[in-house]
Amino acid sequence: MEDNKDLTPEKSGVYFISKHGIIFISYLGSGKVTGAYSRELDEAVNAVKTNEDRRLEYMTMMIREMEIREEGRAEGRAETLSALVKDGYLPASEAARRLNMTESEFLKLSGQYIAH
Q: Taking the CA atoms of the chain, what radius of gyration do you get in angstroms?
């Protein structure tokens, strides 16, 4: 029996997609209805788009995701500025100013108690 280990998708680079998969990908790319299956997809997409409850849920989710991203960016800025203060590249007062907080708030946030 022949060894087919080299014929796996990871090694050969050849992947097989079902007919529905191809139609789905085509519909995502073009938004065009080309048959019964893409018509079902289009109807489902339009039903979600016109459902006000779903729209509100989607918008709420998108707003929350934006808030989470901003929280992550703010945390990253605070961590970076804390490291710069710790390493002596930036005074704590300047780091606090860049974060729109007092120096004592910054020191509490960063967990650092730098002697002045």
A: 27
